[in-house]
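Justification of resources, computational component.

The compute hours requested in this renewal are based largely on the per-chain cost of generating structure records like the one below. Each record pairs the submitted sequence with a full structure-token output. That output is archived, and it is also reused by downstream analysis tasks.
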Amino acid sequence: MTQEELLAALEIAPEDPGPIDLDGDAPAVPTGPPPSPTALDLDEWSMRRGAESLDGEILGPILETQEDRDHAEATAADCLAAAFEPTPQLAENCADETRGRYFAQLMETPEYAALHTETRLDPIASELAAGHFAQGYTALVEEEAQEAPPDAPDSPQIRPDEKDRSELKKEIRALGAASQALREASQTVKDLRDTQRALGEGGADGGGAMPISEVKERFERIRNNRQLRRILELAGRYRRAAQARQRQKTKHGRDDMVGVALGADLGAIVPAELAALVDEDLELDALRRFLERSLMQREYCGLEPQAQGPIVVVVDESGSMSGEPIATAKALALSMAWIAKHQRRWILLAGFSNDAEGSWCAMPPDNWDQAALLEWLEHFYSGGTSPAVPLQTLPARWQELGCPEGKTDVILVTDAIMSVDAQMQRNFLEWKERAQAKYYTLVLGNDEPGDLAAVSDRVWCLPNLDLEQDAIQELLAL
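The structure output for this chain reads:
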């Protein structure tokens, strides 16, 4: 029985193959999923977020050169999702071959995996990283447009080996653009983290959430100020050393459980949350809330054996301290501010020169004024040196500054040998006893402390403020 007879017996009409082109090839039948407008598999929320980001200050200026609005929105959505989404996935068939190749190369690198741990579910860090992803993509598009051959790779005039070489060149260009974008994004996110930690914003140390616009504004302010960038870079080193020194001390803080709070401290999570981690139905939700720091955990209250007064750092802002000395001095002051916040103490920062006014920044541990802190870090008198502020104005303004009573640590950083008259010395020592203050003096570049030795509990004469100095290690352990 032939095929035609079988179809007739089953009453199945054969399909009409249509006209056959004897001189050409059979028409190609499309296979696979339909083309995707994005390089990543995105939902409607991600697409809407990409469209809205074009009106912002980061992605908008980068992608405004694209004439096709839909194409720009898809590019923005890809860049944001690659940085923000917890588990971004590549689409199977991106309509934009260049963008699909670029994101495939970007997301396969170990540098992306390391960066993604810092940017996922973080709206600020992910948007900053997305800006660099968009810059890398636009640079790749421009490079391919300049190097495009007169004949397309699919043209009959292109031999198969030339087509393979052309595809390889495209892969290499995409990898180069992705690598450059990842390097710049990683540095930007690192700078953001240093800024947030230095200014007491976010992290395990606490610090209330700030509006995204304010964080961006202050971050850009720091990026455009070389002195501020240097201070924060040095402060990061001091802070890491301070964290190590503080961990070696006897800790208080888990004497009494006072309630339940939201967080991600695995050692304090309530049993119900731990049980959710081993339940197949609740595990993913528990992991999501862990990333969002919204797990229920026990809240403890510590019992301090002694009232803690403020930490005070007084920095010499005379002209001889310009450059690296003032940067290291203010970086040390910033690390002492972190210690004060860690110990839930007030921090008072003061700068002085040859007048009796001084620059001041006083902050309680639970309400840091980042704007005032940045103003103090940027301030520099560049004048002479007088002991009026550290020994006279400070005691006179103590109550006005709102500093609480208790054990107080005062640190003076100067490079001058000061002369202190007898009356100023007596008045200062009386105030020091009333305020329960210990006075630590760091004299830079001199072998003698001068009259400061008579008013100080500890005096060090140092060539610089490097972390290797024993005096710095001692102060970071206060």
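The mean pLDDT is 82. The chain has three domains: 44-149+157-197, 256-301, 308-475.
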